[in-house]
């Protein structure tokens, strides 16, 4: 086994290590979450643009787009990665502040359908890919994210490569080369947050993974040291090189078990504040002021002060908390719109909400202080890392999925994800 960081990741990606049941169950839940977000996201403007582009290009009918019709696998990964992130309602992992499933599952299902793989094979490949993306995100560290890189796109591209390479049966040397080639394709900036460019970042990661794995399988040669070597991805993208932390207990401990699923249709950085506010008597007429304390890193991610679009509203503490105080269901997609951003009631309430950075809090914590018009002061906090029992997580996620795509389709997909169907069977529900 290679002693390099890339070599150890490559060996893990194609290993015969058996994931534990908790990790596999989490991967099944994330697959369902990804499918629901993708199916529900097809009406989004960015989805319509990507679908139109995919359908306009001639090519082999290899993998199905969300919304129907088969196109080349690489294009399906690009479109489906974008579409499934269009609602910004997909899962998150806070070890590297990224969305693990959108890039990896979009790549794995595209190649899995092309190869006629079973659902269980695809989910296993995706689990290895998501785990690798999280580990690589830990290696890159917070400086990479803070410098402006979008981990869903950067680390996610390597995860998509790992899943794709596992499905293609790459050798250890080929997987190292694929990861090295991915180093020249992985890209994505936080500057796109609040625009169509953010979900497109996820699509870019998915298609990069499919493309580089297919190229290497066909004999393409690249620098296998381009991830960590001189002038490589880590050094040029402000990576911290946290090798020991990234490789700790690799193959024995699955960080994927700590995936956090969204139950509010907005940036995950807002969820701790929303959950904390739920426990208070948060009714618009009673609010004199509302103060949110959050980790400083979220101030540049989801603290848009006065967004004008529904998409922008999903990255605004003041807006989502005002929506909640007005009695709007923050789990519903239609609660976020340009019209609501202009609503005088929301604008007036939004101005009573203040957001402060607090370095004493972790990235998964938020602290909310409500001052009521009668002078009472109420406080509450929440931590997204608080363990959630599998049964409760499944129940809440199924409720979300049913709201997005209907009870009948939800039940059918969930049964297939736990059974022995094929990617084509899943795609029939796209």
What's the structural blueprint in terms of helices and strands?
Elements: H1 5-13, H2 21-40, H3 45-56, E1 63-64, E2 70-71, H4 73-84, H5 100-115, H6 119-146, H7 151-168, H8 172-182, H9 197-217, H10 233-236, H11 243-247, H12 271-278, E3 287-294, H13 310-313, H14 317-325, H15 338-342, H16 344-350, E4 353-357, E5 365-372, E6 377-383, H17 390-405, H18 407-417, H19 423-427
Parallel strand pairs: 3-4
Antiparallel strand pairs: 1-2, 3-5, 5-6
Describe it for me?
This protein is α+β, with helices and mostly antiparallel strands. The protein has two domains: 5-260 and 390-427, 2-methylcitrate dehydratase PrpD (Orthogonal Bundle), CATH 1.10.4100; 268-383, 60s Ribosomal Protein L30, Chain: A (2-Layer Sandwich), CATH 3.30.1330. Helices cover 51% and strands 7% of the residues. The protein contains 19 helices and six strands. It has helices spanning 5-13, 21-40, 45-56, 73-84, 100-115, 119-146, 151-168, 172-182, 197-217, 233-236, 243-247, 271-278, 310-313, 317-325, 338-342, 344-350, 390-405, 407-417, 423-427; strands at 63-64, 70-71, 287-294, 353-357, 365-372, 377-383. The strands form two sheets. It has a four-stranded mixed sheet with strand order 4-3-5-6. A two-stranded antiparallel sheet has the order 1-2. Helix 5 packs antiparallel against helix 6 and helix 8 runs antiparallel to helix 9. The chain is globular and about 70 Å long. The two termini are 40 Å apart. 53% of the residues are buried. The mean pLDDT is 94.
């Amino acid at each position: 086994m290679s002693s390099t960081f890339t070599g150890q990741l490559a060996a893990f990606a194609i290993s015969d290590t058996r994931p534990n049941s908790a990790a596999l169950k989490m991967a099944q839940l994330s697959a369902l979450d990804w499918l629901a977000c993708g199916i529900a996201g097809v009406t989004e403007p960015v989805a319509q643009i990507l679908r139109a582009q995919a359908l306009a290009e001639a090519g082999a009918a290899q993998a199905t787009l969300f919304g129907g019709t088969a196109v080349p696998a690489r294009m399906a990964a690009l479109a489906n990665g974008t579409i499934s992130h269009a609602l910004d309602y997909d899962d998150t992992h806070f070890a590297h502040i990224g969305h693990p499933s959108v890039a990896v599952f979009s790549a794995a299902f595209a190649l899995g359908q092309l190869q006629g793989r079973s659902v269980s094979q695809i989910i296993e490949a995706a689990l290895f890919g998501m785990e690798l993306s999280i580990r690589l995100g830990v290696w890159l560290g917070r400086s990479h994210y803070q410098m402006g890189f979008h981990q869903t796109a950067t680390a996610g591209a390597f995860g998509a490569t790992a899943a794709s390479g596992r499905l293609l049966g790459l050798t250890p040397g080929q997987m190292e080369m694929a990861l090295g080639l991915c180093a020249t394709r992985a890209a994505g900036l936080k500057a796109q947050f609040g625009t169509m460019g953010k979900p497109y970042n996820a699509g870019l990661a998915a298609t990069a993974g499919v493309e580089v794995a297919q190229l290497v399988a066909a004999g393409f040669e690249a620098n296998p040291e381009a991830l960590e070597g001189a002038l490589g991805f880590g050094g040029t993208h402000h990576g911290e090189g946290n090798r020991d932390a990234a490789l700790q207990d690799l193959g024995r401990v699955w960080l994927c078990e700590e995936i956090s699923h969204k139950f509010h249709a907005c940036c995950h950085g807002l969820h701790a504040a929303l959950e904390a506010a739920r426990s208070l008597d948060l009714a618009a007429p009673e609010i004199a002021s509302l103060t949110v304390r959050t980790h400083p890193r979220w101030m540049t991610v989801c603290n848009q002060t006065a967004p004008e679009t529904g998409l922008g509203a999903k990255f605004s503490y003041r807006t989502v908390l005002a929506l909640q105080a007005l009695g709007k269901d923050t789990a519903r997609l239609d609660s976020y719109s340009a019209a609501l951003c202009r609503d005088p009631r929301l604008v007036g309430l939004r101005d009573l909400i203040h957001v402060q950075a607090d370095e004493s809090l972790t990235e998964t914590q938020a602290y909310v202080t409500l001052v009521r018009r009668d002078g009472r002061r109420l406080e509450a906090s929440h931590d997204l890392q608080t363990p959630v029992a599998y049964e409760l997580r499944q129940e809440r996620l199924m409720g979300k999925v049913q709201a997005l795509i209907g009870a009948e389709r939800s039940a059918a997909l969930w049964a297939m994800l736990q059974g022995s169907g094929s990617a084509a069977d899943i795609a029939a529900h796209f």
